[in-house]
Please model this.
Amino acid sequence: MTRSEGSKTEYKVYLAGPIRGCSTEESTDWRERIKMRYSEDFTFIDPTDWYYKAIEDFDPDTASHELIVRDEQKIMDADAVLANMWRESIGTSIGICIASQEGIPVVLIDSNHLDSIILSYYADAICYTVEEGIEKIKAFETQKNIFQQLRKSTRVKQSRLVGRNYPNQ
Model:
């Protein structure tokens, strides 16, 4: 899928993956690489864009709650979730479950072959590299676009039928 210069898709991809207990580099480097390489293909929602600042700015008694609520809302705003599960992560696992329950496609990158039976249940696709994951996300975007076109086409056909008298069958 090639996009013209300056155009950007509105297909939003939430970049899930371990943050807590990771160095800043571990949690941000892979996300930054994806955003740099695929920014013309997708709009990315990156929790590290607000996580570290939130830790500093939020009231310590409510920070965890505020972060969880923000993450949940951002996941629900996404069209798909790309979950890089290079190590186990409770927050990422919960995010995957939330997305799955909301009908949001989840692509799980399992580069270290954690082979979680539970996560494989909630994931719509499992792959072992970022590149494979992006290809799966592109396929989900295509499916969504096809579905929207079909729905639009159906509405147009239905609107053309309004007011016409057809014999009862």
Q: What stands out?
A: The chain has one domain: 12-161. The chain has a mean pLDDT of 86. Residues 116 and 153 are 40 Å apart (CA to CA). The first strand starts at residue 12 and ends at 16.
